[in-house]
Amino acid sequence: MVPRPSADDDASSFEEWRGLLFGIAYRMLGSATDAEDMVQEAYLRWVRRSDRPVESVRAYLVTIVTRLCIDHLSSAQVRRVSYAGPWLPEPIMTDHLSEVEQADSLTMAFLVLLEELTPPERAAFLLHDVFGYPFDEVARSMGRSAPGCRQLASRARHHIDERRQRFDADPRHGRELTREFLVACGSGDLDGLMGLLADDVVVWTDGGGKVRAAMRPVVGARRSSRFLLNVAKKVHGVPREVTLNGQPALVFVEDSRVEAALILDISGRRIVAVRTVSNPEKLARLNRELDQASGYEPELARGDLR
After folding, report:
1. Which residues pair with 306 in a beta bridge?
2. What is the pTM of this model?
3. Phi, psi of 241 (to 5 degrees)
4. Which of 92, 109, 270, 286 is the most exposed place for a label (fewest CB within 10 A)?
């Protein structure tokens, strides 16, 4: 009989795949906090497994996390139906991730699209199209047939392709436009702000019913500009530049606490969407990440960035 690996070996084997497991769980759930819970539960199941040898640690752990996420989404869907106002994913810092991990499958827009899929569709699509697993492995992870998983992924892919927008990948361009946006909002420049927004721009604000936020998306350049300028007068905290979900972004920090996170979707020279998260529950992890960061962009003055 092959001896059971030691506790240290078990921990080492798990840590090798922790980043992958979190990446799958976060994309599945749209919540970094819930994703961490899924990864922790996977670890507990890993160390408590039977003595039967594991052929592939990666496949074994991906199976656990995938099934945990599918089960979790059943209750999560109920919570989101009753969510106060627009629901947005929990923002995460991505400065430290590799280029592969910073793919556009981490953007807010993409994660919101995933919410429109059923949990099995989401799992099959992510495992195959995003993480590149063959359908026989996807099938084992989901406990379904390979043809069934292929069909699930195909439906998901069709839905995503119909609705998916492509945004500028140049971070420098995104950073410049983000700064122009901040200056316009901070100085009350209505015309300047309207010039940055697409005609059909949409503004989403996620306060989760815990802080004041618009209960419906705001649509159109003029309405959005007036709304954003009104909000800017009430925003507390010093703006700081960060990279969230692979996109240039701003966080507003007061007394070492993030009060809001803002991400812009940019296409060409126009902002096509503004997504602001101020729900404190969705900013707790971001606070920890900023505390742990060795250094991120300095404070920005809202009215003097030209």
Report:
1. none
2. 0.89
3. -85, 135
4. 270
Which residues neighbour 221 within 8 Å (Cβ) at sequence distance 6 or greater?
194, 197, 198, 199, 200, 201
**In this structure, how many other beta carbons lie within 10 angstroms of the beta carbon of residue 236?**
11
Q: What is the pLDDT of residue 169?
A: 63
Sign of CA dihedral 144, 35, 128, 42: negative
Nearest to 224 by CA among 269, 274, 155, 284: 274
Strand (E) or helix (H) holding 232: helix 221-232
List Cβ neighbours of 28 (8 Å cut-off, separation of 6 or more).
35, 66, 69, 70, 73, 114, 119, 122, 123, 126
Angle between helix axes 221-232 and 171-187 (nearest 10 degrees) is: 70
Domains of the chain: 7-163 (1.20.140.160), 171-292 (3.10.450.50)
Burial class (CB in 10 A: 0-12, 13-18, 19+), 287: middle
Q: What is the pLDDT of residues 128-165, one digit of tens each?
A: 999 999 999 999 999 999 999 999 999 999 999 998 87
CA 136, CA 116: separation in Å to the nearest integer? 25
CA distance 159 to 150: 14
Give the HSE-up count for residue 289: Cα atoms under 13 Å, Cβ half-sphere: 21
